[in-house]
């Protein structure tokens, strides 16, 4: 087998390793065609471990290129090889890729089955990269299933693993996935009449998209940058900052030598949509026509045509709107027809892979097992992967029945950015794990310690009053300050600030949490390394 007509044959073992590394680098930089060329060379070799990894990469390339039938057919061959050699890490990534493909092609039940398998196999493999890939793919699948809260949970977990691994590409992608999910939640909040919540979610999405842009620019990853740029423009327009959204595009110069048609199409469509939101209909039409002309697929052309028809209509050009809508309708029919044909081919591949269909009773048992596994998966989503503590989602569940008779402490590491900047993010992670242990050991069995987010923790104290809660908070603060942090890093000292609120202050748990947050920042403003409770609140 040759690779893309290059005539290359599989070189020596060390050379194959290098080729596979180069193929992975091309894939990470959103160049699946170049990745395929090199991965095919490695897949033609004799080393089963490298072959399994190369085949796994080829499956992922097919998925990126929207070649779902080819992806699933090759996945069957790759899985057979992984099972034979016991490569659980590659097996997990393959199941995750198959799950993503099935979600895209309209089979959510089978997609979730594959995702659950991927997470279980990745966990058993002990390979953090496989766990990160499976978790990140689960986030994407949940996004397409419109389960945005769960998507964010899995995105956070995948980003945490990526940071531990030093995988900035995945970290940036997961941050932007959270931005997309938060924007969907913002739109839902606005539709429900919750404008305050909608704006807060939009601001959070903007912050995440900006962070994703910074990461992409640092890495020179133009596809990720333009996707995050478009998402930021959308969230700014949503918040009414349309001129700021338009300014985002002034510094971007399309480079046909570096930018694929998909990048160009996405950028022009985002720019046109921002102009549309700003009421600049003529500019919107120019950008959207260019996007339609550059579209690399019928799906992309369909999206561009729909937006262009809207622009023509708003501009008062009803003939242009009608003609473009007809084009959109024709493209929609073609896309639907091709999807139906593809679904038939996928069904054949799935049938071959499955060996045989179970009887009705067995199918019901499979669905019940799937539901059970899904519950277990959601249970796992309540745990923070870095510290082993419960996470914010679990805290929300604990607060659901109210906080009467409880107290809540919000604990934040003072000058944590300085710890990361002066000692490294790895040391910062160790500080968070050590602090989690200190908080857990200092609390009672019926208290709950939660990683609230970033360097912030929450402690839910059961059956306590103001005096006892204040005493506990001061004890925690003092223990942290007195701890020997030099065991983590030479010259390191860590303190925390704590905001305290009583559950009886309001019947609404979010109000109680908000007051604890206000008092935490009051403690920060007062000089840090201190506790602020109800008596100190403004």
UniProtKB/TrEMBL annotation:
Coiled-coil annotated spans: 353-380
Domain of life: Bacteria
Gene3D superfamilies xref list: 3.30.70.270, Tetratricopeptide repeat domain
Pfam families: GGDEF
Domain GGDEF: 404-536
EC number per UniProt: 2.7.7.65
Keyword tags: Coiled coil, Nucleotidyltransferase, Transferase
An annotated Gene Ontology molecular function: diguanylate cyclase activity
SUPFAM superfamilies the UniProt entry points to: Nucleotide cyclase, TPR-like
Protein name: Diguanylate cyclase
NCBIfam families: GGDEF
Record organism: Actinoplanes subglobosus
């Amino acid at each position: 087998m040759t690779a893309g007509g290059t005539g290359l044959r599989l070189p020596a073992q060390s050379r194959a390793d290098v080729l596979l590394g180069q193929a992975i680098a091309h894939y990470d930089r959103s160049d699946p065609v170049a990745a395929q060329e090199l991965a095919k060379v490695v897949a033609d070799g004799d080393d089963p471990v490298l072959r399994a990894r190369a085949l796994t990469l080829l499956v992922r390339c097919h998925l990126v290129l929207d070649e779902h039938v080819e992806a699933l057919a090759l996945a069957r061959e790759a899985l057979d090889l992984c099972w034979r050699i016991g490569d659980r890490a590659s097996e997990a990534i393959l199941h995750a890729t198959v799950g993503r493909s099935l979600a895209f092609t309209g089979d959510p039940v089978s997609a979730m089955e594959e995702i659950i398998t991927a997470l279980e196999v990745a966990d058993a493999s002990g390979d953090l990269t496989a766990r990160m890939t499976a978790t990140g793919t689960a986030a994407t699948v949940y996004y397409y299933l419109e389960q945005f809260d769960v998507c964010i949970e899995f995105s956070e977990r995948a980003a945490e693993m990526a940071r531990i691994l030093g995988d900035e590409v995945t970290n940036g992608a997961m941050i932007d996935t959270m931005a997309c999910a938060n924007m969907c939640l913002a739109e839902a909040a606005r539709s429900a009449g919750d404008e305050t919540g909608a704006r807060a979610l939009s601001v959070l999405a903007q912050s995440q998209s900006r962070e994703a842009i910074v990461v992409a620019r640092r890495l020179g990853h133009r596809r990720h940058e333009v996707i995050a740029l478009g998402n930021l423009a959308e969230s700014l327009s949503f918040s009414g900052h349309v001129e700021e959204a338009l300014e985002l595009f002034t510094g971007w110069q399309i480079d046909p030598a570096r930018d694929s048609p998909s990048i160009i199409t996405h950028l022009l469509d985002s720019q046109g949509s921002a102009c549309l939101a700003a009421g600049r209909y003529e500019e919107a039409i120019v950008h959207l026509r260019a996007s339609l002309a550059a579209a690399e697929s019928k799906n992309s052309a369909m999206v561009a045509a729909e937006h262009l028809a809207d622009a023509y209509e708003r501009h008062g050009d009803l003939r242009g709107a009608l003609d473009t809508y007809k084009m959109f309708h024709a493209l929609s029919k073609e896309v639907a027809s091709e999807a139906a044909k593809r679904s038939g081919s996928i069904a054949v591949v799935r049938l071959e892979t499955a060996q045989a269909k179970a009887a009705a009773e067995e199918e019901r048992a499979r669905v019940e097992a799937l539901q059970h596994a899904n519950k277990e998966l959601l249970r796992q989503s309540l745990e923070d992967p870095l510290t082993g503590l419960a996470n914010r989602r679990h805290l929300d569940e604990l607060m659901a029945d109210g906080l009467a008779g409880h107290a809540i402490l919000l604990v934040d590491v003072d000058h944590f950015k300085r710890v990361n900047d002066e000692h490294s993010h790895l040391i910062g992670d160790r500080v968070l794990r050590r602090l989690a242990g200190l908080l857990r050991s200092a609390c009672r069995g019926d208290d709950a310690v939660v990683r609230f987010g970033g360097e912030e923790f929450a402690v839910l104290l059961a059956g306590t009053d103001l005096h006892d809660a204040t005493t506990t908070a001061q004890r925690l603060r003092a223990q942290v300050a007195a701890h020997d942090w030099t065991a983590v890093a030479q010259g390191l000292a860590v303190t925390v600030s704590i905001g305290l609120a009583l559950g009886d202050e309001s019947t609404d748990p979010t109000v109680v949490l908000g007051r604890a947050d206000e008092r935490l920042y009051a403690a920060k403003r007062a000089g840090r390394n201190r506790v602020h409770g109800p008596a100190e609140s403004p």
